[in-house]
Design brief:
By secondary structure, the protein is an all-alpha fold. It has five helices and no strands. Helix 2 (39-55) packs across helix 3.
Length: 107
């Protein structure tokens, strides 16, 4: 799927409609960050989407990590996620790649 076929994005690069998300959309968004998604990335993004489904908002970093450690893997520390996704903005980057709105506390 070329960029021109991406679903609508907001000014911050997040999907306008989170229901438009697919793994392929995630791969295209990640490629824009020079990131190639593997199974671990996709499990984390699915965990992020599960958080959103349960709580109806994109989480800040601390509650996200706590949730992911309980539901995906106990090894998902902030440092590991920063390294895995090559970012210091874990909650914001994961929300964007998972097709979710920007977390409310992110600039």
């Amino acid at each position: 799927m070329p960029d021109t076929q991406l679903p609508a994005l907001d000014k911050d690069g997040h999907l306008v409609n989170h229901l438009d998300w697919t793994r392929e959309v995630a791969r295209i968004l990640a490629a824009r960050d020079q990131l190639v998604l593997n199974d671990e990335h996709l499990k984390v993004l699915q965990g992020m989407r599960e958080y959103y489904r349960r709580f109806e908002h994109a989480p800040a970093t601390r509650p996200l990590i706590k949730f992911l450690m309980q539901t995906v893997s106990a090894d998902l520390t902030n440092a590991h996620l920063m390294s895995l996704f090559n970012t210091g903005l874990v909650a914001r980057t994961l929300a964007r790649l998972a097709g979710l709105p920007k977390p409310a506390n992110c600039l």
